[in-house]
TrEMBL record:
The entry's keywords: ATP-binding, Kinase, Nucleotide-binding, Phosphoprotein, Transferase, Two-component regulatory system
Phosphoprotein as UniProt keyword: yes
Transferase in keyword set: yes
Taxonomic lineage: Bacteria, Bacillati, Bacillota, Negativicutes, Selenomonadales
Reaction(s) the record says it catalyses: ATP + protein L-histidine = ADP + protein N-phospho-L-histidine
Name of the protein this chain belongs to: histidine kinase
EC number(s) given by UniProt: 2.7.13.3
GO molecular function term, any single one: ATP binding
Species of the source: Sporomusa ovata
EC category name: transferase
Pfam families xrefs: HATPase_c, HisKA
Domain Histidine kinase: 142-348
Length: 353
């Protein structure tokens, strides 16, 4: 760069692992950027030099740079300014900026250093979610026991009285009450399965996910017919994984049911598998209207639901199952539909079972 004649400064700037930029104070025109910034934002140098952040659409909020300049004018620097930036490839990053004035050949410029904290924030959110689940688990066992005891007692008396000839003409009412008690008991069971380390107390086995999905395909297709939707199976041969079959069946049923519920009649839901980066990936993709961005980060929270008659436990159960299988759920959504990807680690033969 012709303006920077200090060789030591230029070497430190260009080789710094932190994304850095030097820009005009007036409009933010970039006069120099280092390789770390280009790699992070997926640009080449020719695309950035001479352009402004506004022209490149780097800041999601266009007034962010004005806020930085206000802090710069007030204090001479700014620190830990957190915002969101857009990469050329479409990725959105959570970033923190530090900045201060520098003088080059008698002219003031803005030196900014960016720190990509996207993964850090994701881990923090996951930690908070797990902490909440841990709190729930500490409360749930005792509460569920206290609730289930009276439910069992009431159900037993209802069954006793419904067999009495005097109440023969009230059979429908008794069956309805028992059905509602069973529904409440089912909700408690699902609630407990979110937090227990192994709610089914069953053996994990090494299994081919394709064979499991083929076994439950008739049940899923029947569900599709009932919903007046179509189910597209695209199941590939993949390496074996260590799973609890009953839990994975429950996860698939929950994700598929949610997909059908999100689509209008006549929609197609795709269920597919593939291998990627030492993981087996299960994908459930619908063509609904997408998930509201305001709740996207809260998915998996117990009792969070957008359905009129939902309990908000289906996805929470799925996230609990994924956690017990050391799997990760990724969600992508738009106005054209939503895709849930569950990444299972491939079973290694040196694992001890």
């Amino acid at each position: 760069m012709r303006l920077i004649k200090n060789e030591l400064f230029l070497k430190v700037f260009m080789s710094n692992p932190c994304p850095m930029a030097i820009s005009e104070i007036s409009d933010g025109t970039y006069i120099e950027v280092n390789d770390a910034l280009l790699d992070t934002l997926s640009y080449c140098k020719e695309e950035v030099i001479g352009k402004t952040p506004l022209e490149l659409g780097i800041f999601l909020d266009s007034i962010d740079r004005q806020k930085m300049l206000q802090l710069l004018n007030e204090h001479g620097y700014f620190k830990s300014f957190e915002t969101f930036v857009s990469c050329k490839n479409g990725n959105i990053l959570n970033a923190v900026f530090n900045g201060e004035f520098i003088t080059i050949e008698g002219r003031p410029y803005l030196l900014t250093v960016m720190n990509n904290i996207t993964v850090k924030r994701q881990y923090e959110q996951e930690f908070i979610r797990l902490e909440n689940l841990n709190l729930i688990s500490q409360m749930s066992a005792g509460i569920s026991h206290e609730i289930r005891n009276p439910i069992t007692t009431v159900r037993g008396f209802l069954q006793f009285f419904m067999r009495k000839p005097a109440y023969a003409h009230h059979q429908d009412y008794f069956e309805l009450m028992i059905s509602e008690l069973d529904k409440a008991n089912s909700i408690i069971t699902n609630f407990l399965s979110i937090t227990e380390s192994d709610p089914l107390h069953s053996q994990y086995i090494v299994q081919d996910l394709k064979k499991l999905l083929e076994r439950i395909q008739p049940l899923l297709e029947t569900n599709a017919l009932e919903k007046h939707n179509r189910l597209h199976y695209c199941i590939a041969d993949t390496p074996v994984i260590l799973i609890n079959e009953m839990e994975i069946r429950q996860m698939v049923f929950n994700l598929v049911q949610n997909g059908f519920d999100a689509m209008p009649m006549g929609g197609t839901l795709t269920l597919k598998t593939f291998s990627q980066d030492r993981h087996v990936v299960l994908v459930v993709q619908d063509h609904g209207t997408g998930i509201d961005e305001t709740i996207l980060d809260k998915l998996g929270t117990p009792f969070l639901t957008t359905k009129d008659h939902g309990t908000g436990l289906g996805l929470a159960v799925c996230y609990g199952i994924a956690h017990r299988h050391n799997a990760k759920i990724n969600v992508t959504t738009s106005s054209r539909g939503t895709s849930f990807e569950v990444h299972f680690p491939i079973y290694q033969t040196d694992h001890k079972t």
